[in-house]
Design goal:
Helix content: 40-55%
Strand order of the largest sheet: 3-2-1-4-5-6-7
Structural class: alpha/beta
Strand content: 15-25%
Shape: globular
CATH architecture: 3-Layer(aba) Sandwich
Radius of gyration: 17 Å
CATH superfamily: NAD(P)-binding Rossmann-like Domain
CATH class: Alpha Beta
Number of strands: 7
Number of domains: 1
Length: 248
């Protein structure tokens, strides 16, 4: 029950890593959980898998495009109205629009930057002032080892590298307010996103990992749990790489 009495917000919570994070933080005793995604049906399925009718805890869905500052502001106003406080924010929402740079268009560049980087800005902007006032807050930002460079992902890599810089800078600004900001950089994770990758390409991904397997979403969720809890009270401004040894 390491998150007992903590109110949590998770973006990109409708599937994959986000859904695994929701399951783990619920298991760890979070008082109330706000799940944000653009897909209402997927959020409903996640909530149905969590809810125990015998408990008083709440898990609520909020449909929101994190790239829209207006939508984010309205959504967080509603979350504060529903739960009173936000103690933990997990910025997990993200998209890919991969292509070689010479073929990339402005739309796919802007879309990835807006969701992956501006989305983190928008959500943090909605909670940081209140976290400073309450003298407590945990922010966990999901980035990627692609931030260090990856073929065909200049837009994605730029967005995720931006998240690392943002994390380290914000951490310094609000550390005196007993607030921590950290990032997690996974490598290849066994989610639906990878199901579309050709088997030969996937085999190459796995061969590049010393542990010779993909990460499971639950393994990422465990790290999020640590960074969301008071077990990490003196950890801030860090980017924890979870790569099975491929980026050490």
């Amino acid at each position: 029950m390491r998150l007992k009495n903590k109110n949590v917000v998770i973006t990109g919570a409708g599937q994959g890593i986000g859904a695994a994070i929701a399951r783990r933080l619920y298991k760890d005793g979070a008082a109330n959980i706000a799940l944000i995604d653009i897909n209402e049906e997927k959020l409903k399925k996640v909530i149905e898998s969590l809810i125990d009718e015998s408990e008083q805890r709440k898990v609520k869905a909020y449909i929101c495009n994190v790239a829209s500052s207006q939508e984010v502001s309205q959504t967080f106003n509603q979350i504060y109205s529903d739960f009173g406080t936000v103690d933990v924010l997990v910025n997990n929402a993200g998209i890919t629009r991969d292509s070689m740079f010479h073929k990339m268009n402005d739309e796919n560049w802007d879309m990835v930057i807006d969701v992956n980087l501006k989305g983190v800005y928008n959500c943090c902007k909605s909670v940081v002032a209140k976290m400073r006032e309450q003298n407590y807050g945990k922010i966990v930002n999901m980035t990627s080892v692609s931030a260090f460079g990856n073929l065909g992902q200049t837009n994605y890599a730029a967005s995720k590298a931006g998240v690392i810089g943002f994390t380290k800078s914000l951490a310094k600004e609000i550390a005196r307010n007993n607030c921590t900001v950290n990032a997690i950089a996974p490598s290849y994770v066994n989610t639906d996103m990878l199901q579309a990758v050709p088997e030969k390409v996937l085999d190459k991904f796995i061969a590049s990992i010393p542990m010779n397997r993909l990460a499971e979403p639950e393994e990422l969720a465990a790290v999020v749990s640590f960074l969301s809890s008071d077990d990490s009270s003196f950890v801030t401004g860090e980017c924890i790489v979870v790569s099975g040894g491929s980026h050490t």
